[in-house]
């Protein structure tokens, strides 16, 4: 399919939707090949069958938040001890994805998909979630791009460079990450209410691609997915039911669809066995989503002034609570016979500073060696330039495709709730407040203008980093914390934050240039980010709070009614 999109005209064609489904996004002939009556009908069936379960799961999240805000802390559930202590295992790993030593991630943009599949990584995770700004155009073009990728026909003509990109003979295995349960899709209404975003992402992709994918990529299995932002095994149970429903619709064997769950919320680390148990016929492991995990630690303990984090640059895998989380994930996955995937290397090559580049790449190497020696079966990279370093580190596994059987990590059974909740050590500084503010505003400005994966200060940032910046600023302001790393004894206040915002906006303007600053949405992003950081109550998700700013409804064609 070509991606030359037509201009919207009032009373032009509308999507052929089944009863009860209303598409309010811009009409496009290319998008219409994705938004067929049959595909929309499948999405509607999923929504109608599972919306009650999703509503209940979201209410359970709110109830847990109320408990944490009243002084409780997460922990292992006594009622599911029999699952944690049981000797069950997940279904065997499909041969097609036994070796996942390096995975590259990125948004579902056309050029990105081609480069990532050609990158030499074992897996490409194509992202509808944190690395994508979920505008109608981005989402629908993403579906078109993925269909072309699975078909093997995807190409991209970069007119500026006069270069045509196409797939190599050997490509990475494709995993797709839909949005989390909490995000709506406001451009599609089902029975008068917004569709559940992840069911749109999953449903459209699965409907159009399951058959071809199983032939060309999955060797009889698939499609493959990554599942984000879960907090409890009941949410995994819904996904398992969705998979079974999709397999039944397609007439394929139960257990064909496989998914890796990101453990990227603090409550979920206490539910890892339970999550794998619910998905045991469909699981290919867990992943350390460490940036979102830090965000979740702050959010979970937003009402606990005794659990404040230091500057976010100090919260790495060397912190006891982070290392404990990684070790327990490895132990849990290998006991259950599935992959334990490591975290993201967000660095991007620094082309204009060889010394700084060498230091950054050395950090990546050390991090990946730590992961493979700990027992991880693979890792994530944000940039193709990091793949050789990651591959080299994971050559430590030798000829084995993974370490599932060779690194059981039985020592990690001693990890306790206290280990997983230990308060991280380190100082808080004015520079930390400044960096949070500068990164948060710039990321949000890019997100509002259609980019969800943004290079900032030699790191590839997605929504997780902006979330850490936002919630940490909010917590520091809320509790008037002392910036104890500067030796000045200054306490954070709304007034101090206001001055920091003004000064950092001036710095951003200098860094990006007056023209880009003027054309970009920096001022709007600044207002939104400042409002979020100074609000009386902390919003659960930045991307949910500002989502309405990127929703673009088009009029229904009245001539058809």
From TrEMBL:
Q: Name one GO cellular component term.
A: glyoxysome
Mind listing the UniProt keywords for this protein, alphabetically? Glyoxylate bypass, Glyoxysome, Peroxisome, Transferase, Tricarboxylic acid cycle
Q: Does the keyword Chaperone apply?
A: no
Broad EC category: transferase
- List the catalytic residues: 177, 462
Ranges for domain Malate synthase TIM barrel come to: 173-423
The UniProt record lists the Malate synthase N-terminal domain at 19-81
Question: Any one Gene Ontology biological process term?
Answer: glyoxylate cycle
Specify the Malate synthase C-terminal domain's residue ranges: 428-550
Homology family: Belongs to the malate synthase family.
Name this polypeptide is given: Malate synthase
Q: From which organism does this entry originate?
A: Raphanus sativus
Task: Identify the coding gene.
Answer: LOC108840348
């Amino acid at each position: 399919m070509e991606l030359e999109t037509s201009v919207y005209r009032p009373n032009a064609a509308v999507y052929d939707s089944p009863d009860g489904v209303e598409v309010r996004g811009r009409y496009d002939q290319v998008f219409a090949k994705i938004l067929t009556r049959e595909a929309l009908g499948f999405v509607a069936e999923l929504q109608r069958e599972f919306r009650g379960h999703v509503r209940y799961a979201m209410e359970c999240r709110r109830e847990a938040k109320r408990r944490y805000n009243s002084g409780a802390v997460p922990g292992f559930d006594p009622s599911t001890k029999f699952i944690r202590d049981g000797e069950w295992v997940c279904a065997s790993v499909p041969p097609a994805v036994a070796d996942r030593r390096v995975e590259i991630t990125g948004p579902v943009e056309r050029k990105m998909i081609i480069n990532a599949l050609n990158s030499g990584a074992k897996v490409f995770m194509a992202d509808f979630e944190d690395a994508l700004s979920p505008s109608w155009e981005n989402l629908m073009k993403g579906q078109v791009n993925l269909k072309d990728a699975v078909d093997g026909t995807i190409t991209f003509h970069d007119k500026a460079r006069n270069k045509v990109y196409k797939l190599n003979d050997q490509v990475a295995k494709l995993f797709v990450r839909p949005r989390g349960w909490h995000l709506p899709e406001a451009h599609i209404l089902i029975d008068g209410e917004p569709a559940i975003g992840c069911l749109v992402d999953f449903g459209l992709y699965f409907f159009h691609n399951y058959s071809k994918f199983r032939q060309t990529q999955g060797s009889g299995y698939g499609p493959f997915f990554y599942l984000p932002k879960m907090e409890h095994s009941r949410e995994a149970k819904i996904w398992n039911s969705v998979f079974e429903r999709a397999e039944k619709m397609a007439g394929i064997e139960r257990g064909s669809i496989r998914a890796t769950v990101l453990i990227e919320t603090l409550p979920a680390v206490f539910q890892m066995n339970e999550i794998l148990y619910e998905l045991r016929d469909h699981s290919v492991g867990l992943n350390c989503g460490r940036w979102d995990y830090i965000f979740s630690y702050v959010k979970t303990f937003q009402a606990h002034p005794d659990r404040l984090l230091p500057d976010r640059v100090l919260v790495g895998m060397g912190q006891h609570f982070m290392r404990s989380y990684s070790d327990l994930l490895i132990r849990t996955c290998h006991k259950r016979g599935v992959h334990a995937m490591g975290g993201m290397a967000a660095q991007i090559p620094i082309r204009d500073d060889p010394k700084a580049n060498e230091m950054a790449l050395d950090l990546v190497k050390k991090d990946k060696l730590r992961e493979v020696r700990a027992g991880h079966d693979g890792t994530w990279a944000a940039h193709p330039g990091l793949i050789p370093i990651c591959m080299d580190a994971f050559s430590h596994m030798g000829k084995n495709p993974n370490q599932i059987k060779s690194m059981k990590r039985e020592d990690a059974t001693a990890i306790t709730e206290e280990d997983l909740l230990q308060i991280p050590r380190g100082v808080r500084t004015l520079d930390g407040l400044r960096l949070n503010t500068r990164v948060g505003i710039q990321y949000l400005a890019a997100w509002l203008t259609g980019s969800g994966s943004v290079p900032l200060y030699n790191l590839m940032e997605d929504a997780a980093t902006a979330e850490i910046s936002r919630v940490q600023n909010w917590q520091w302001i809320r509790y008037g914390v002392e910036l104890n790393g500067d030796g000045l004894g200054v306490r954070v206040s709304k007034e101090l934050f206001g001055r920091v915002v003004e000064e950092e906006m001036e710095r951003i303007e200098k860094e990006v240039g007056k023209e880009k600053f003027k054309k970009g949405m920096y001022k709007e992003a600044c207002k939104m980010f400042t409002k979020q950081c100074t609000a009386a109550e902390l919003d659960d998700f930045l991307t949910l709070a500002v989502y309405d700013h990127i929703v673009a409804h088009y009029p229904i064609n009245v001539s058809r009614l």
